[in-house]
Amino acid sequence: PTNHLSEADRDLIGVVAQQCASALENLRLHIDLAQSYDHMIDMLATIAEFKDSTTGSHIKRIDSYTQRVALELGSTPDEAVFFGKASRLHDVGKIGISDAVLCKPGKLDVAEFALIQTHTRMGGTILAHDRFLALACEVALHHHERWDGKGYPDGRPARECHLATRIVTVVDVFDALVSRRPYKAPWEPKLAAQEISQGA
Asked: Is the pLDDT confidence value at 55 over 60?
């Protein structure tokens, strides 16, 4: 019974109860924030899917590949999931590329390829507005950089990029090779893996 508690004990119980209530509210806010982050990624990825009919399944595959490679390279399961979520927005900048260029069935000319290259900066600009999307922004901006510094948009050696970005760079090439595109037939996975190894 509470009448056996001293005034100090009742005060202490009140403080602990208040701290527990605050902790539960903070947890609820954290869960809401994590869900909002997931919803934001889903919304942006959906926009990219509307732009390019091949993008939806590509996005899901890149997420899966990124997580699997990250785990193989020693990332924790939570890190792998985080990398996978960031990978889903790697091509979000393509919403700014005209359909005529994006879906062209033949080889791109120099001007068209230069236009395609702008999708990395567009993606970085779109994602730069929110600190929770910092990794997704890095991935979108630098997933076409190369180890030898001859990639784009900055010609930055890929070794300077985040591990998630380097993983997305490789799995994006793999998926492009093994998928049917308007300009090419799919490659056999073994040949695609050999091509990536030769280009390493």
From this structure: no
Which residue out of 60, 85, 94, 184 is catalytically annotated? 94
- Give the single-character DSSP code of 181: B
With beta carbons less than 8 A apart as the criterion, state whether 167 and 70 touch.
yes
- C-alpha distances (whole Å) from 107 to each of 96, 110, 114, 170, 181 are 20, 10, 13, 22, 11
The single-letter DSSP state of residue 185 is P
Q: Is 94 a catalytic residue?
A: yes
Among the ranges given (14-18, 154-158, 189-193), the one the predictor scored with the smallest mean pLDDT: 14-18
> Residue 109: pLDDT band by 50, 70, 90 thresholds?
very high
- CA-nearest of 154, 126, 140 to 85 is 140
Spatial separation of the C-alpha atoms in residues 161 and 149, rounded to whole Å: 11
- The residue whose two tokens read 């909002």 is 36
